């Protein structure tokens, strides 16, 4: 298993991350998911944002580049897998390669937070060290 950061409550943060993944799978596989916008192709922005949030959260929860790489690969596989599942297992959804591309771009953007001071935000919040800066 990938290394989790040295939090006070590591299972809480890890559990919330996995809950986010479960919610994403549920929403992606439900027959008529809620639409946040009536604009054409707005679902691409929804895909991008969802995967950006999951990838950025992985940077927060997991410790170091190796763990982040595994999380990124897992999220990419999840995005592609969901698209295949939508095409194969549902009658109300269809596979869309552009959704998978939006997922991948979201993962890349979320993982890019590892190169910023934000990569330690959750750790600093939990430790109460944000106010000391």
From TrEMBL:
The keyword Transmembrane helix applies. The chain crosses the membrane at residues 12-33, 45-63, 70-89, 101-123. Keywords: Membrane, Transmembrane, Transmembrane helix. NCBIfam families: vanZ_1. This is VanZ family protein.
């Amino acid at each position: 298993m990938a290394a989790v950061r040295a939090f006070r409550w590591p299972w809480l943060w890890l559990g919330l991350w996995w809950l986010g993944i479960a919610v994403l799978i549920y929403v992606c596989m439900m027959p008529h998911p809620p639409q946040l916008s009536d604009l054409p192709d707005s679902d691409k922005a929804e895909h991008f944002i969802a995967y950006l949030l999951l990838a950025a959260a992985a940077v927060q929860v997991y410790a170091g580049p190796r763990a982040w790489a595994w999380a990124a690969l897992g999220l990419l596989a999840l995005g592609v897998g969901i698209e295949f599942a939508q095409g194969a297992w549902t009658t109300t959804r269809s596979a869309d390669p552009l959704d998978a591309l939006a997922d991948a771009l979201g993962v890349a953007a979320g993982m890019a937070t590892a190169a910023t001071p934000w990569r330690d935000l959750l750790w600093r919040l939990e430790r109460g060290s944000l106010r000391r800066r």
